[in-house]
């Protein structure tokens, strides 16, 4: 439920952000007015940024930023202000971005649910395996399936098959360790 609400919030956030950012926009980032005017006012110390829907041929400082700062700068300061601005025309597809983000959120959610499933399943498998697990001391017994492994495979449920496979892997790892550490040989 928590992830469903998170997905709804993300989708709603994208819907709200559509009004702020369009697929095609002109974005200008300029220095603070204090860098041009040499004034130390608190109102002129922040960088200026403005986003508009101007066409590509009008995406420049004179069209986008000068109307915003015309009352605060004189003509000579405006000539010094505009070369320091960086105006870029951006064309992007926010619909594709939106769907990619939603897919990534769903994949992460599915992986988290799968991880929780495995965390819950692990104690059940270990409890069942530890209750029936016998350590093999004879090497011939390791290669022949015993009555316990036969009964587990006959039942046919998923938990028993997984625990049977786990037992087989544990025996193989134990045999490999014995060969490498005790006999100093490798299995083929």
TrEMBL record:
Pfam families assigned to the protein according to its UniProt record, in alphabetical order: Tmemb_9 (PF05434)
Domain of life of the native organism: Eukaryota
TM annotation in the entry: 96-121
Localization in the cell: Membrane
Alphabetical UniProt keywords: Membrane, Signal, Transmembrane, Transmembrane helix
RNA-binding listed as a keyword: no
Gene Ontology cellular component terms for the protein in this record: lysosomal membrane
Signal peptide: 1-19
Similarity field: Belongs to the TMEM9 family.
Name of the protein: TMEM9 family protein
Encoding gene (name): 109534349
